[in-house]
Amino acid sequence: MEQGALLKKSGERLLVVLGKEIIAEKHFRDITRVLLFGNIQMTTQVVHKFLQLGIHVAYFTMNGSYRGQLSSVSSASVYTKMAQISHWSNKQFLLALARQLVMAKIQGQRYVLQKRRRGISTKNERLQEACNQLEKAIQQAGAAPSTAVLRGIEGNAARVYFSIWDELLPKEFPFEKRSRRPAHNGMNSALNFSYTLLLNEVNSMLELYGFDVMLGFYHSIRYGRISLSLDVMELFRPLFIDQWLLSLARQKQIQAKDFYWDEQSGMYFTSEGRKKFLTLYEQWHKEYELRTKLERVLTGLERTMLKGDVDAFRDATEEVLSHLL
């Protein structure tokens, strides 16, 4: 969407207007969410229509940093949030949930390495050793005596996992190591941006289900942190984002020219690179059926909170993984 564009309502259609020209239009029934980057404005009529239809709107800076959202009042049952809060003092219950989450995440990371090894070398010893270490980490996570120990296991697994990425990526995408903010290279920039988009999706779905997104079971609570959203996002990082980005790079659907370097804030998508990337993201979002898989996991988490039994969440995570492993 062009900078300076205005979103206007015309009957049951959303118009994107730049100056006096209509540059795009779409029926409201075909819109599920809206992502706005930089200087894009909406009329009051559009805001009211989005709220009426429950269309989630997220605001980002031009560089992809999340700024906030517009969402309608949730009609979800208050009992989900009450049950969630009631479990807060039950540390063993929270630990059991966290174990299942981390085990599933590492299993997803191991799958990504196993899948992406095809076409490089089945005799790659470093890759095989990394897979073996991740398998051990899964077992360790299942027996972790505390959340602090679990975080250490997850952190070590992440280092092992990302240490192999240089061997999975084409030469135009040197990875070196995972860098968050600032991103030191194009692939880390793509990871950061993709995780931000994923987090926004997870957060809006959790609110729709009636969860308190600030009250996580794995990420610690901090002022302003959407800890539960960060928790749930962990499950989908490897299988929704990581494997897809590796595929995009190896198929040259994203290239080094899609990024630029800023001396003060690191690597970012160019304007054209971001447009292309968001189109690819929307295509993958539909192909992967992210919303359906998120609904399955959140339904399991909801049942777990209401019944006080981790089995429903475990079954949901295993089902989502089984569709891809």
From TrEMBL:
Task: State the similarity comment.
Answer: Belongs to the CRISPR-associated endonuclease Cas1 family.
The record's annotation in HAMAP family points to:
Cas1
Source species of the chain: Parageobacillus toebii
Among the GO biological process terms of this entry, one is: maintenance of CRISPR repeat elements
Cofactor(s) for this protein?
A: Mg(2+); Mn(2+)
Q: Which gene encodes it?
A: cas1
Q: Which InterPro entries match?
A: Cas1 (IPR050646), CRISPR-assoc_Cas1 (IPR002729), CRISPR-assoc_Cas1_C (IPR042206), CRISPR-assoc_Cas1_N (IPR042211)
Q: Which residues bind Mn(2+)?
A: E154, H219, E234
**Keywords linked to the UniProt accession:** Antiviral defense, Coiled coil, DNA-binding, Endonuclease, Hydrolase, Magnesium, Manganese, Metal-binding, Nuclease
Q: Which residues form the signal peptide?
A: none
The entry describes its oligomerization and partners as: Homodimer, forms a heterotetramer with a Cas2 homodimer.
Coiled-coil stretches: 117-144
Biological role:
CRISPR (clustered regularly interspaced short palindromic repeat), is an adaptive immune system that provides protection against mobile genetic elements (viruses, transposable elements and conjugative plasmids). CRISPR clusters contain spacers, sequences complementary to antecedent mobile elements, and target invading nucleic acids. CRISPR clusters are transcribed and processed into CRISPR RNA (crRNA). Acts as a dsDNA endonuclease. Involved in the integration of spacer DNA into the CRISPR cassette.
Q: Molecular function (GO) terms listed?
A: DNA binding; endonuclease activity; hydrolase activity; metal ion binding
Q: State one Pfam family annotation.
A: Cas_Cas1
- Superkingdom in the source lineage: Bacteria
Q: What is this protein called?
A: CRISPR-associated endonuclease Cas1
Reported EC number(s) for this entry are 3.1.-.-
